[in-house]
Amino acid sequence: MDATYIDLTIRLSLALLLGGAIGIEREYRAKEAGFRTHFLVALGSALFCVVSQYGFGVDLKDSSRVAAQVVSGIGFLGAGTIIFQKNVVRGLTTAAGLWVTAAIGLACGTGMYVAAALTTVMVLLGLEVLNYWIPPLGTTTVELNFSAPSRESVKKFISQIKQKGMEVHSYELKERRLSKEEFLEANIEVKAKKDFHTLEILDLMNDFSDVTISAIK
């Protein structure tokens, strides 16, 4: 074996640390894949790379085959984190994070420590620092559930939401009965700017005492 046990330990340990660093950031953001998932992806990728280099003997000419399968195989894990729900795609950043974490693990497995460390710093820089300084662009979809005593109250509430610069994408009304009281339960989707804050809608509660918001997603 060309690599010493110390060298192998450094490669695998660095993959664990760098992958775990990205995982901690994702854990802080309460994303689907957190610390454990990311360090396992990085560590597994590094081990695959080490095995492809030294696990099949010195006569193996193409040691990149196993490592190449990691690139395509990680796609299945990333695809599992992507969710398409009600015309909204979620989990793309998490999937991309797993993909680049696998690349960092491969870099550690081949001994490219500087490249792995620089990539980790760039990933954290992009996820945290640049995300903080660059103003949010585009729109996001917000799902709002609320109840109101009449259709007129619902119309006024939606009209006020539009005045706040939000666009109503779809809505659904259901009639409910509680004891002798009848009311309407509304489920609407609105398009808002990515810097939207839920307090903007909650502030409307001061103007609509007969409207009760049950959930904002």
TrEMBL record:
Residues 12-131 form the MgtC/SapB/SrpB/YhiD N-terminal domain. Keywords: Cell membrane, Membrane, Transmembrane, Transmembrane helix. It is found in: Cell membrane. Pfam families: MgtC (PF02308). The chain crosses the membrane at residues 6-24, 36-54, 66-84, 96-127. It is a multi-pass membrane protein. PANTHER family: MAGNESIUM TRANSPORTER YHID-RELATED (PTHR33778:SF1), PROTEIN MGTC (PTHR33778). Belongs to the MgtC/SapB family. This is MgtC/SapB family protein. It comes from Segatella sinensis.
